[in-house]
Amino acid sequence: MSASNLYTRGDRIFGYANAFLLALFVLSTLYPFIYVLAASVSSGAAVTSGRVVLWPVDVTLAAYQRVLSDRMFWISYGNTFIYTFGGTAMSLAIMIPGAYALSRKRLRGRTMFNLLIAFTLWFNAGMIPFFLNMRDLGLLDSRFGIIIGFACNAFNVILLRNFFEAVPKSFEEAAKMDGASELQLLWKVFIPLSKPAIVTVALFCIVSRWNGYFWAMVLLRGEEKIPLQVYLKRIIVDLNSNDEFASSLLTAEYSFETITAAIMVASIIPVLIIYPYAQKYFSKGILLGGVKE
Amino acid sequence: MRLRLSDYFQTLSEDLRRDWQLYLLLAPMMIWFLVFLYKPMHGLQIAFKDFSIFRGIEASPWVGFEHFGALFADAMFIRAFWNTITISFLGLIFAFPVPILLALMFNEVQNALAKRWAQTIVYLPHFISVVIVAGIVINFLSPSTGIVNTVLGWFGIAPIYFLTQPEWFRPVFIGSSIWKEAGFDSIVYLAAIAGVSPTLYESARVDGASRWQMVWRITLPCILPTIIIMLIIRIGNLVEVGFEYIILLYRPSTYQTADVVSTFIYRTGLQGTQYDLATAAGLFNAVIAFVLVYTANRISRKVSSTSLW
């Protein structure tokens, strides 16, 4: 019996209506990306006169040339790489051993440690005390401060801990017979077996580091240290209201709009590159962490 | 039974000796939590002090509830508090159902390839930074060059100043938040739908149920526990709004509808350096948040017999 025989006419209409509405949602999700891409390779005059709707008009790479010749663009791009990879490495180096220790049921004080971590999900001191604490620690305007200050969070620790707890006892016992130390056990048995959870947490860290702007904007003073998102924020949000700057970018070749579109495309590209991997792991990881705990 | 202290220390030292490696692995993480999340809690006391950054936390004199009194007398704080609640409620009404609808719709797509592509696209905005989203919104809604006003112009509608008019802030904020997160938020409902037993659909089909009836009578009731849990989490987070996004989108002319407690804290504390007053506002918010989350968890434990943590 084929599937179409199963359905009445009403069912088929339901199917079409569903597909139509969903397609509408998907297209409206996609459209801003297409528009930004089209605007970034169109001439400034075409964009400001409203002639770019879906396809590029008067194709030119002038906006990209302008952006790629900007020194601050490269500095902030480099900084974002430092914060993303330095921060993620730091997060994993602290959270993996910690979560592993917490996953050992025999560990004395385990309940108390778990509670200390879970409590931060419900209550935190907030923006100002966190800021003053960073200041007291001498971590204002510091690259290291950005990397260490946001290294852990309770959600990721719990996700890793749950995964380590689910590793079958037999693996552990075999390694123990060979007289492995805890570090060897973690490195040779638990980490290889927990790859999905670790990749998930790593991706969480990478995405939040790549996209984060708020604390970098608050904590960093030096121009040389700001990440890409802060640079973007300055150009897109702060300068948008600054007519003088906006009009200084207005030439026949490129305009304020095409420049910002080009910067946005340049900052989205790395996200698009890791996105296929992210998609594979994220849906699993969210369920891992959320439901079990 | 009397607890004997010497026994306690005896077993403690045995445990420490046996598991010293584990404690060594645990130490950096616990130190991190103490230094970066618990130490600031000690700094919360400045909500009750006349804090000066030069005197430091300890040396600043106590003032009791003076800052809280000042806050409740401050029309701007009261406004920020009500804006927070209002924006949250509007989000609950308009944004909360969208991922549920999306998941139900995805589930009805027969073509596996089309379904996978559609999901890939709607998850994507979740991975884009709020700065870019704000950039797109500002770009699209620009009165002179934005595509939205260009299209409105085709129908002879005069340009609308979406971002400078207070009545437009909330629709713009909630609409663009749906664009960014609804797709990704549907994942949890899709997982719940995947857990529905296929035999339910088979027997319904034998009974001659239409697809619409199956959605309404089988799928939706089966994912109701998930919906309730998500709703409770959402209510628990009622005083949290996406302030990092609001900061990018609001401006003085829209503060009236856009300024929330977190943005108020940011402006008075970090930009205006009234640290003590801003900390008091933050503490007020955090206590309400704590009560809400705690209550939400208690209710969830009752209704679904699964607590959230």
Polypeptide structure, described:
The complex is a heterodimer of chains A (293) and B (309). With 293 residues, chain A is an all-alpha fold. Chain A has 16 helices and no strands. Chain A has one domain (68-293): MetI-like fold. Helix content of chain A is 75%, strand content 0%. Chain A is globular, with a radius of gyration of 25 Å. In chain B, 38% of the residues are buried. Chain A: It holds the Pfam family BPD_transp_1. Chain A: It is a multi-pass membrane protein. Chain A: Its main location: membrane.
Q: Briefly note the structural class of the backbone of chain B.
A: mainly alpha
Q: What CATH architecture label of the domain at 97-304 in chain B applies?
A: Orthogonal Bundle
CATH topology of the domain at 97-304 in chain B: MetI-like fold
What is the CA-atom radius of gyration of chain B, in angstroms? Answer: 26 Å
In CATH, the topology of chain A is named MetI-like fold
Oligomer: heterodimer
Which stretches of chain B of 5+ consecutive residues score pLDDT under 50? none
**Global outline of chain A:** globular
Give, in order, the helices and strands of chain B. HHHHHHHHHHHHHHHH
List keywords for this structure.
heterodimer, A: 293 residues, MetI-like fold, B: 309 residues, mainly alpha
List strands and helices in order, with pairings.
The complex is a heterodimer of chains A (293) and B (309).
Chain A: H1 3-6, H2 9-40, H3 44-48, H4 62-68, H5 71-103, H6 110-122, H7 127-136, H8 143-149, H9 154-165, H10 169-177, H11 182-193, H12 195-211, H13 214-219, H14 228-238, H15 243-248, H16 256-292
Helix pairs in contact in A: 2-16, 4-16, 5-8, 5-9, 5-12, 5-14, 6-9, 9-12, 9-16, 12-16, 14-16
Chain B: H1 5-18, H2 20-43, H3 56-59, H4 66-72, H5 75-94, H6 97-107, H7 112-123, H8 130-141, H9 147-154, H10 166-194, H11 198-206, H12 211-236, H13 243-249, H14 255-258, H15 261-271, H16 275-304
